[in-house]
Specification:
Structural class: alpha+beta
Number of strands: 34
Largest sheet: 8 strands, mixed
Radius of gyration: 42 Å
CATH architecture of the largest domain: 3-Layer(aba) Sandwich
Strand order of the largest sheet: 16-15-17-18-24-23-22-20
Distance between the termini: 60 Å
Strand content: 25-35%
Shape: elongated
CATH topology of the largest domain: Rossmann fold
Helix content: 10-25%
CATH superfamily of the largest domain: Class I glutamine amidotransferase (GATase) domain
Length: about 650
């Protein structure tokens, strides 16, 4: 037992003036009278109103002193130390990822986690505070530090399991400052342990772990993708079994509502089974589903865009070109394939959205957009007349879409090919009238020509290089892919690159809800990806739709499909269970004292203003005076 502000006990000195006020009476003028027979009552008043007299019992005085004592006790903030398995303050980090939808415990893991949070709220000391943080694809402070149990319970009811993965690194980064803000804080992680734990944390507090979940019986799709082949397209699906027994399931692939193929799979315990399915020539959005009654239904279905979301680019060069390959790898909407050999090498099977030739002449019968770099003689597109030593870029068409956001004025070039500008091409950049970068349309296709080798300039080392390459690819093959990633996991923010001139993007989710966005600097950030399935993306110029593509949201996570309860290693150390060694928590008692003081003052007010003061006071005085008093003299012995 102790007091946080013992100096408040000094206010007990206020009892002295209160008692003095009851002993002090007004002084009256003395008057001589002939007889006191008729003045008995006056004599009593004189005796009672003498300046100072012996203190008489008074109920109001007793109540006022009692109220003062209760108020002083409240100001001193008394407390008692109690034992608790956690600290005086708590930070609860609750896993809300896809695996928390599992139903191996009734009614689900997330409901069991909410029950654990309620237990923490009930065990919170009177002076303690609690913070609730959710850990999903991102982290969120659901309830800031507070001791209000009602607010904490309301926040607990808002907990919902989502459909994405778990990012505990971000969640623990939020928990660290919350734990340091208050002394004696314990961080409690409530999860099934199905996440990749961070290797290090900045938490300077005790970390406890509450595990939810009982078993790992789950069969899920963990990979699904399409690819183009020389004979067409095919779909690959991988199904994994995280249970302890062998499972049989039926894999069905649909194009919309049409069943393309169904295959029976046998998946060994703790193993996987893959299946490759050939696709018809024209298919839309594919849906792969397994018939698996298990504890997690979230990973039993996956959606895939046929042919993928990326355009195909074929790169043919006389030798390795690291700068060009790295620059193309940064383009989000294309996948690059490399042709081996020189000018006589075959282009390869299948149609490509863009052909790039570096120091190599393209075939004469090639159809499709071409980017020609460092053109050789007899390339079939542009006439080469010689070489130019150290050309300086003196002019460029800054208004051209291929040079949007590009400044080539400081690019240094060691050597370039001297060419004649054909009628079909425009010079995007030149050196004293001699073209260095050209673009135009010929033979029903778009062509761009860069007259110098990248390795013979410092262009790849400038900020203009990736922008120029993206502009060229976008202009040469505007329909090469949708610019969307192959697939996105639920909860992730998608960055959509809108085409030039687009002023509106509409996205329709699988439930049919439509959202419209205005691109900011050509980019749309789309965060509403919680529902797995296909999302339709439409781009508009005014009221005219100019492009439509599909974005697919899938879980496809081994960590989330593996619902086996685990004990994580936080920062390289195992987090202790909540039943660990007890610590001492401080429980304050000032609220009961304050309520008692208010109650006593209310009684004192009622007695004084409702007329009961005089009768109760006289009754107490008479009771005091009628008490038996001991004799002041010696007791005499009674004769025998």
């Amino acid at each position: 037992m102790g007091a946080l502000t013992p100096i408040g006990l000094g206010l007990l000195a206020l009892a002295v003036p209160i008692v003095a006020l009851y002993m002090l009476r007004m002084r009256r003028r003395e008057q001589v009278v002939s007889s006191t027979l008729l003045w008995e009552q006056a004599i009593r008043d004189v005796r009672a109103n003498a300046p100072w007299q012996r203190l008489q019992p008074n109920l109001l005085l007793f109540l006022q002193l009692l109220a003062l004592a209760a108020l002083v006790a409240a100001l001193a903030r008394p407390f008692w130390l109690g034992a608790t398995p956690l600290g005086a303050n708590l930070v609860a980090v609750v896993d809300v990822s896809g695996s928390m939808n599992a139903t191996d415990v009734e009614p689900s893991r997330i409901e069991r986690a909410k029950g654990e949070v309620r237990k923490l709220i009930d065990s919170l000391p009177a002076n303690g505070q609690m913070t609730i943080i959710t850990a999903g694809t991102g982290a969120e402070v659901l309830q800031a530090a507070t001791g209000d149990r009602a607010a904490l319970r309301q926040a607990t009811e808002r907990l919902r399991a989502r459909t994405g993965t778990t990012n505990f690194t971000e969640a623990l980064a939020l928990a660290a400052p919350a734990a340091e803000r208050l002394p004696d804080t314990t961080v409690v992680i409530i999860s099934d342990g199905g996440f990749t734990p961070p290797s290090s944390t900045d938490i300077r507090a005790t970390v406890r772990f509450v595990r939810v979940g009982e078993r790992s019986e789950n069969l899920g799709i963990t990979a699904a993708a399409t690819r183009r082949t020389a004979s067409g397209a095919e779909l690959f699906v991988r199904v994994q079994n995280f249970g302890a027994v062998e499972r049989k399931t039926l894999l069905s692939v649909y194009d919309g509502a049409t069943l393309i193929e169904a295959r029976a799979l046998t998946v060994p315990a703790g193993g996987e089974s893959g299946s490759t399915i050939g696709l018809p020539a024209a298919v839309g959005i594919l849906r792969a589903a397994i018939d698996a009654p298990d504890d997690l239904a979230l990973d039993n279905t996956a959606w895939v865009r046929s042919g993928g979301n990326k355009g195909r680019v074929l790169l043919t060069s006389a030798g390795p070109n690291t700068f060009l390959e790295r620059g193309l790898a940064l383009q989000p909407n294309v996948v690059v394939e490399r042709a081996q050999g020189g000018a006589s090498a075959p282009v390869g099977g299948g149609d490509y959205d863009l052909y790039i030739f570096d120091g190599v002449a393209p075939p004469q019968d090639l159809r499709g957009p071409i980017l020609l770099i460092n053109p050789p003689r007899d390339n079939g597109l542009i006439a080469v007349t010689g070489t130019i030593e150290r050309p300086a870029i003196t002019g460029q068409l800054r208004d051209d879409p291929t040079l949007k956001g590009v400044d080539l004025s400081r690019v240094q070039i060691a050597e370039a090919v001297a060419v004649e500008r054909p009628e079909w091409a425009r010079a995007l950049a030149d050196s004293g009238g001699r073209p260095l970068l050209l673009a135009g349309e010929t033979g029903g296709r778009r062509v761009a020509v860069l007259t110098f080798a990248l390795g013979r300039s410092d262009l790849p080392l400038t900020l203009a290089y990736p922008i120029l390459l993206a502009n060229l690819v976008g202009w040469l093959a505007p329909d090469a892919g949708s610019g969307l990633p192959e697939t996105v996991r639920p909860g992730e923010v998608v960055s959509l690159a809108a085409r030039s001139g687009v002023d509106g993007v509409t996205i329709t989710d699988p439930t049919g809800r439509e959202r419209r966005f205005a691109p900011a600097r050509g980019v749309v950030l789309f965060p509403n990806t919680d529902t797995p399935g296909p999302y339709t993306v439409r781009e508009f110029v005014g009221a005219r739709e100019i492009k439509r593509s599909v974005l697919t949201i899938n879980l496809l996570s081994v960590d989330e499909s593996n619902i086996a309860p685990q004990s994580p290693q936080i920062g390289g150390t195992a987090a202790g269970a909540v039943t660990g060694e007890a610590s001492r928590s401080r429980n304050e008692l000032w609220r009961p004292f304050l309520l008692a003081a208010l109650f006593i003052l209310a009684i004192e007010w009622w007695i004084f203003y409702r007329g009961g003061a005089r009768s109760l006071g006289l009754f107490a005085r008479d009771l005091w005076q009628s008490r038996p008093r001991p004799s002041r003299g010696r007791a005499r012995k009674r004769p025998a």
